[in-house]
Write a structure and sequence with these properties.
- This protein is α/β, with parallel strands linked by helices.
- It folds into 2 domains: 60-463, ANL, N-terminal domain (Rossmann fold, 3-Layer(aba) Sandwich); 482-582, GMP Synthetase, Chain A, domain 3, CATH 3.30.300.30.
- Helices cover 32% and strands 22% of the residues.
- The protein is built from 17 helices and 28 strands.
- The chain is globular, with a radius of gyration of 25 Å.
Length: 584
Amino acid sequence: MISERNKRIRLLLQYCFTMRVLGRLFSKNNRFALELIRRCHSVEYISSQLPDIETTSDNVAEYIMRDFSKWTNKTALHCFVTGKKYTFDELRINSHNLSRSLRKILGLKTGDVVAILLPNSPQFAVCTLGTLLSGLRLTTLNPVYTAHEIQRQLVDANVKAIFTINSAVNNVQEALKSAQLKIPIIVVTSTQNESVPKGLIKYEELVNLKSDSTPLEQLDNDDFWFLPYSSGTTGLPKGVMLTNKNLTVNIAQYQAFNFMEKTTENFQDVLPLIIPMFHIYGFTMATATALQNGVKLVTLPKFNPNDFLHLLKENSPTLLKLAPPLLIFLNTYPDAKAEYLQAIRTVLCGAAPLGKSDEDKFREKVGKPVNIVQAYGLTETAPFAMSTPLSKQGKFPGAMGEPTSNTLMKVVKIDDPKNKHIPPNQVGELLIKGPQVMKGYYNKPEETKKSITPDGWFRTGDMVRYDENGMFYIADRIKELIKVKGFQVPPAELEEIIRNFHGVADAAVIGISHEVSGEIPRAYVVPKHGVKLDPNHLRNFVDEKVAPYKRLSGGVAIVNEIPKNPSGKILRRILRANFEKDGI
């Protein structure tokens, strides 16, 4: 009779043998093994196939600059319009100088929030790195924001100082006056001789002050350092609290895909920086990761077709990071010549899905094999969450990719309270868990609770499916956001403005399809009883208060009522269906 001890030994040996066999199958990337392991252990999520990465407690700015000493005299940033340049050594020195000046000259304290309202420029990188080095927090704003939009974010984020440019000073001052705030305004000039309004601080005064080596007090690794704004799945823009750990981990997660090559004495990748640096995509996946690899960034302050094409012609870029409308522009614009794109090795497309036909048209235009990879992420995930490895390039057209390192994903039915992972090829909401997931929404615990489950899963608000290979595809959005050229436009923000127009009783805003912008906002407005509204006057009223991409380009429809469910929630899908069917 077999003793209990021998039974246990035999079971242990059988288990070890089984795991060894499965390990061999797994090492050969055998999907059968993956599925068998998943079923045997009842794993209810999809995990990354990449090795886990180690986290660091290094200051994110120091982490970005860790290898700058290898490329001291190579160009790090070059503004295509003004000609302003920084070598990697100049970028490092100016960033450290600024970090001291913010604390010693402006008197800012650890944890104070500094705002950056700047277009793409070399100085943007200095302001970002200098702020993060100094133990201060950072929030970024779109330079085309109106005073109304600026005021909202400055107040909500409790900003203590702001960087901007001369052309935006009036808007900033109007915003501060309206909010009854008095904070330092630092003006970044285009040329050395450009003056700044009286009472304001010139950027050069801060970066030219030589720094000492006195240590500055830093925030905790798990405290929030960066506060970009996002609307999440619904509502007005909210501050997304990204910690130092979120940022450093996400940079490493992106680098694991090896989309860029490290700079050497004889080679340097060149990346035109067209996507906005203030946007999380431009900050983490373009600026931070490129600088860490020694890539030369050529900045363009504002998109202009001629400037963009001249930039391509004169700089022979090897990499492109775009949103779909820009790739479509290169496919269709007559003056976008194939010869300008011959050095391109890899194109990364993010912010919105890109169709297979658009990928094919770009390769056809260039006339040679080009890696075109899509990536998926959100402000709340710092943002990188998934992409397609170069080794799988072209095998899964239209896919957003597979999870990056240290990242778990599951797809759930939107009405399932248990959030149970559903099988392949079924559509459900994507949930993400990983070290890049935000700390929460700033001063909005209830919104945070709605977005992050008690066991740490972030609800993306995106409807997806995954296939048997673990590749994910966007199916639809349940979130209300309108995506205009990759920019977020929250309907609630526009609806709030519309309801403040004289004679408006109710309003709803949806996104309608547009061949260039992807989507554009369209408003449905109910007048108060006895009031006759002029749609053109209403559009002008809204246009004055929002950035150009948020304007009601899709028109204004005067209606008798807004469709809502019993709880009062706007049924935007009905408005969209009516527009697609009847154009109204």
